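Troubleshooting log. The previous structure file for this entry was overwritten by mistake, so regenerating from the original sequence record. Sequence copied from the archived sheet and checked twice against the printout by T.R.
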Amino acid sequence: MTSMLAKHTSVFFLILLFSALAIADNQIDYSEVFSKYISPSSLGLKQEKLSHLHFYFHDITSGKNSTAFRVAEAPSTNHSSTFFGATVMIDDPLTIKPDVNSKIVGRAQGLYAFASQSDFSLLMVLNFAFTEGKYNGSTLSVLGRNKILSTMREMPIVGGNGVFRFARGYAQARTYSNSPVHTIVEYNVYVFHY
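Regenerated output below.
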């Protein structure tokens, strides 16, 4: 009889313990929870769409209207055939046509760095900050490799804000013209967003 009483007492305490845990779980303040699943519609997200943007990027490295400035370099940069280590901060205009005086639709803001010791490849870390039409105030973020001597280069779009919230896609770059002071790059950007 004693063992039966001990057995029932153990079961009773287990039931009591699980009941107390269940009650405590219902009293958790979920505003302090680190992570939870939510519905996209709760953020006002509707059907995802694919947009194509086309513009020209103007990198002007000298003169009174310079938009690109070297801000860092390695001790060996000036002796490197690929300018390895040079880092350039940019605020380049994005225009609707190749002419730098055509309508500006945004700016490319960020930096690029010469990241290869064997070829002309850049690490691109920049935002396309748009100032025109329905994209005004929205940005797309680029993070990737740009092998600048290739005819066509492709870099990932890793995010965005404004109408490009939750963006993902890619940017194709093609050099339109190149001089020692002004490089014009044609961009075709394909991006999924809500």
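The longest strand covers residues 49-60. Archived copy saved in two places this time.
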